Amino acid sequence: MIDTFGPTFLRRPHGAVWAADVLRIVTLVSVPVAAVGWGAVAFAVTTLALLGTVVPRMLGLRPTFDAAVVLLCLVAAWSSVLDWYTTVFLWDKLVHVILVGLLAALLVVIASDAGVVVSAPRAGVLLSALVALAAGMAIGSVWEIGEWLGHNLVDDTIFVGYDDTIGDLAADGLGALLAGFALPWLSRERQVVQPMHLRG
Description:
Layout: H1 5-9, H2 17-38, H3 40-59, H4 63-81, H5 84-87, H6 91-113, H7 120-123, H8 125-154, H9 162-186
């Protein structure tokens, strides 16, 4: 699996992959812009988003899945930088539903590639949805712990609260469950490139 990361990431783009790559470039440019304009926390957030945009290309995901993950990582990062989570009604919950859903699906693909879980097309819709739900709740828990650590150790303007945390986790679970139902479709039509020494 790891052997394919480099060749797959470096493959020539075509079709919808171009759109995802343009969004990746926008995310890359966002890192210094956010750092200069909004400071260290914004730099950390956009850098994390950049990492999230690299992984789908390394995995050779279906182009629409790839582009969706990249777009949501970018939107989520700038939503944090611009304080949309606390100023736009229900924006926080909407981003949690969509982004964590996509990330849960991404995590399940990684787990299936590693042989930890059965691949979604073989597992079927129901099992895929349940595995994605577990993945989404795990991602959501790490997200909330990160927010709490950020609030207490880095910047106390990072918003945390009991109601917010529970609401976010509920949104995470919903998004992951919905993405899980789509996993058999999302995990198909991948563009994985084998390294030269593995090609027959």
